[in-house]
Design a protein that fits this description.
50% helix, alpha/beta, Uracil-DNA Glycosylase, subunit E, 242 residues
């Protein structure tokens, strides 16, 4: 076990240191996916866009995200990326947005950052798809992989909130500043947020660096390892209290 963990830490760059829908639901999904006049019409019939999304099951949510035209990111996407993993997971990892490979394959964290995330998960005894769900703040790729703009994050936020409501995870790991700001609230840096337990709707939130940032700044991989160990200790506490 020790040698396995050592190899995972080396991969992280740390070396030896360490349900079917009804016709009614189909109409709701179509309404939730739209913005502008069409969205306003759906809102009048079934509630606001946020209220509609908040009633969707996983199938409805997946369809709503795939059909969403609520912000400009939909114009250049190949496909929207809802998320991937165990829909009864205790762990939820939230990143920023899809990159080029994610946009092509329809799954979050499948490029080099995804390989690093998988190594990060394995270093604390986790595996993608097993008691782990992975999502992003925005579901469509921002041009040139830039940081999502405030209006883009706001348009997608009801989708993430519904994912959280359906999952009911015991702990959320915010990967990077956009995720941390949305889940914790306000202008916050990862340096200021890490090492503490925050709460989002009563759910524990731990912040750490995004894997893509760690690829550019490997000197902070040791800090990310500390954050993962902190998250694991917090999860142990949350599980004991349950």
């Amino acid at each position: 076990m020790t040698s396995r963990r050592d190899s995972l830490l080396q991969e992280m760059g740390l070396g030896p240191l360490w349900r079917l829908r009804t016709a009614r639901q189909d109409a709701v999904v179509a309404g939730a996916a739209q913005s502008g006049d069409a969205g306003a019409g759906a809102a009048g019939a079934a509630g606001t866009r946020e209220e509609i999304i908040a009633r969707l099951d996983w199938d409805g949510l997946r369809s709503a995200v795939a059909e969403c035209r609520a912000c400009a990111l939909c114009r250049e996407r190949k496909q929207a990326v809802l998320g991937v993993g165990d829909t009864a997971a205790d762990w939820l990892f939230v990143g920023e947005g899809p990159g080029a490979e994610e946009d092509a394959r329809g799954e979050p964290f499948v490029g080099q950052a995804g390989k690093l995330l998988d190594a990060m998960l394995a270093s604390i005894g986790l595996r993608r798809g097993e008691n782990v769900y992975i999502a992003n703040v925005v579901k469509c790729r921002p041009p040139n992989n830039r940081t999502p703009q405030a209006d883009e994050s706001a348009a997608c936020w009801p989708f993430l909130e519904r994912q959280i409501a359906l999952l009911q995870p015991k702990l959320i790991v915010a990967l990077g500043r956009p995720a941390a700001q949305g889940l914790i609230g306000g202008e916050i840096s990862i340096g200021a947020a890490r090492g503490r337990v925050h709460r989002h709707g009563g759910i524990a939130v731990v912040a750490t660096y995004h894997p893509a940032y760690l690829l550019r700044s490997p000197q902070d991989k040791a800090k990310a390892w500390e954050d993962l160990c902190f998250a694991r200790r917090q999860m142990a506490g949350e599980t004991s209290a349950a």
